[in-house]
Amino acid sequence: MTEKSGGRSRGKTGVVLVCDGRNVPLNPFVQSFIEETVRGMVRALVGVPKEPQRIDLWIRKK
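RESULT FIELD:
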């Protein structure tokens, strides 16, 4: 099963990095590093479920 996001198809699990509309390939180590780092930071926030199923993070330059 895949999800559609902005015209891009992606797997249900994993990390996708898109910079300026271009997909950036990530090896399994980098995917795991990003996923665990972001999950750890998000879990520390008040009001966030202990095990969120999906986290969307967008960073835009001002």
